[in-house]
Fold these 2 entries.
Entry 1:
Amino acid sequence: MSKDLDARIDALQISVDRLQSILAEADTSREVISAEGALTERQEQLESLQSQKRSLAGQVELSSISVDFAQKTRVDTVEPGGFTGGLRDGWNALVSTVNHVVELIGVLLPLGSHRRTDPAAGRAGPPPQALELNRGVAA
């Protein structure tokens, strides 16, 4: 707004100066009256704009800016759940570990009990190669 106001003041000042030179060179009373009327109008506009500029400058001088600085609070220590919270967390960890061990046993158990059965006897026994090895050692 100030730049716009400054530009308008400069333009009006040039117009006033031009009208003053026209008034100084006027030959007839009609030219003098016409130049004086235009000059008076331009001077009023110029004074009004200069007054607005002074008013704005005064407002800027009286304006205030407030800045608030705040620091975020830092958490230095974390509050645990206390003694009972620690017991609860420990119990939950123990139960979770036992569950994982049981699941692992459940997965590994079928793999370890995979034995060959003797079709003739209909019962479980060692593989045929092991029987042949045992016979060879005894003989």
Entry 2:
Amino acid sequence: MAERSMERARANRESSDAYIRSVAAASPSEEISEATAVRDSGTISADEFERIKT
């Protein structure tokens, strides 16, 4: 019984960790990369891009 409880707790923890990773905010480098793509497409100006970087 204790083994099943431990296994269930481990599975729940892994599931929670996976969910948290999937919804976590993007890293700063990912945000800059996305901003670069948006700037290159002409959606934002160079000034707006510089504000995002800082």
